[in-house]
Amino acid sequence: MRLPVQSKSVYEPKDETDEWRVLTTQYWPRGISRDAVDEYVRILAPTRPLLHAFKRNDLSWAEYRDRYLKEMQGELQQAEIHRLAKLARSQKVTLLCVCKYEDVCHRSLLRDLIAQFDA
Prior knowledge:
Blueprint: E1 5-9, E2 20-23, E3 39-40, H1 48-55, H2 61-71, H3 75-88, E4 93-97, H4 106-115
Parallel strand pairs: 1-4, 2-3, 2-4
């Protein structure tokens, strides 16, 4: 069973498809109020060194993806993924990040990890 998890930019306005909004960034986004999200889970964001390397174009998307997925194998990360997967069984979870395009953002990878989690 695939869990109801979606993702979008934190700069997109909240709408009726959002139920539980989870921000997963290393830095709080400029211009976003604290009440725009339901929770902030920094541990599910890429580490700062990984994020900076990708933004400097030192890594391809494939390299970034592989390193991010490896980071998400940590005990604390797996616990959070499991918790959000349990939450997604009762309500839709919307993952948020500052990136404009989902196809080159960790939130698409995280969405799939949560949606496929066998809890």
